[in-house]
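Hello, quick one for you while I still have it in my head. No rush at all, and the record is pasted right below.
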Amino acid sequence: MTSIKAALSAKQRWIYLFFGTTVTVILLSWALRDVSLIAVWNTLKVARPEWLFLGWIAYLASYWVRAWRWGTLLTATCDPGRFKTRLSAIFIGFGVSSVLPAYLGEFARATVLSRLDQVPLNAAIGSLFAERLLDVGIVFLFLLLPIWFGQLPHHSNFSQLPIGWIGSVIVMIWIAFLIGASYPNQITNLAEHISKIIGLGRFRTQITSAISGFLSGLTALKQPRRSFTALLETVLVWGLNGITYWSGLIAFGILAPGFPGALLTQSTTALAIAIPSTPGYVGPFEAGIRFSLSVYDIPVPVVIAYAVALRFIMYVTIPIIAGIVVGILSLSTPNLGALIIKSSGNKH
């Protein structure tokens, strides 16, 4: 049984790797088509570093807010652990996502918090799903704002996007999660019943325990005051992230989009990187930026140089910070990396 499970897990990883690599090659080729690398390099050399630095500070500040929000969501069901542990776990998780498949980064930060501050692992993972639900809602809202207020050129590519369908899917996901948060016992009992029907009765304890813990992480969604606080924190997270995109635009002398255009670019890119790809979202990230800024008729080398600068801020500096954090934690938590790898292996 163990060997079959290991074989299936290895097969799934290879399928994910093949699909992610294919997506990366296709989207990166599209983003870099007809681009002179010399022109990109020359544009990078004249960028204003003070604005890029401001964007980096705003991006780091968003991690602090993410740590507060995580505590807001976890407090609904358990002790959320220490703020510094949550912040460290977030840096580690995002750092891992920059160099390994993204789901490992999410699981890594839940594991770090669970191991260091004894926060229930299933509750920590469930709270991450609640985070993603809030993130998707605000990202989509920020995507719609410049469209609703007519701040895009008439020839905008966004007129071709199925905004209604995207919004409908997001609403259905919200409803599904709210139902899960409101009726955890009923859903757990249903899962136990189904596991018996399909011949997984011997695993019903593990299944129901995992589902119960996961749904407990969504508890904050059915508490109006707590969910409203988390929603405001989510707005602040993506507002700070938007400042990063806006500061980057100014650094390259891209003034036409303004802050609304920065929010549009941020949201488009956030939706693009949800597509499975290679670690660090190579391809979807660059394609999302090029697609969104193409509506402003900005020279392509400038757009790609801008994407390169943001990639450095988000996906190069964060793994470095994560490595430093791991080094500090290892002074009091030996073999932390081994624990994360072992726990993620048990998950699969």
